[in-house]
Sequence to fold (181 residues):
Amino acid sequence: MSLLLTASLVFQGLAILLLGRIAWIDFSTQRISNRDVLLLLCLGLGALQFQSLQAHSWFEMGLSALAGVVLFGALFPFWLLRKIGAGDVKLMSVTPFLIGQSSLLVFSILLLVFAVATAAVVKNPFLLPAGIFRHYVQHLDRKGVVPFGVPISAAAICTIALQMYHAIVVATSSGILEQLN
Fold:
């Protein structure tokens, strides 16, 4: 494995850990801190930087930036209408930097699955096994709050894990791809 790939994998691994922390904090407090989002942005930019250097192309980084701006612009009115939290808007705007433009479709499908599952759990807390957890979700339903950072983080974690798996498989393959280059 090359040094650039290793550095990119380290940044992606750190991003997974931070996304897990964000999901837990958003679930328990319904808050996503600016510091965590900014750190995710830096990790995502670093990973994209290493991938761009390895591919000798900055196209994916530019498209990821464009996707982040479009997501922010599309979700900002929903924040103004108080339909979604500011932390959720910022987290969604940063995810294209974490996962790259090429994996946005996978992320979108996973986000849809996790968002539907989260909504189902909040609306039907009796599907859950633990009493305390069920009580907490019923409290969320009474408040009318859904921690949307949890499905965003879960979808991003799964997408990044798939990217890391693919990168490791390609890097440790028989070397045919390197001979073709």
Remarks:
- The helical segments are 3-29, 34-55, 59-80, 86-99, 104-123, 131-143, 149-171, 176-180.
- The chain has a mean pLDDT of 85.
- Residues 3-29 form the longest helix (27 residues).
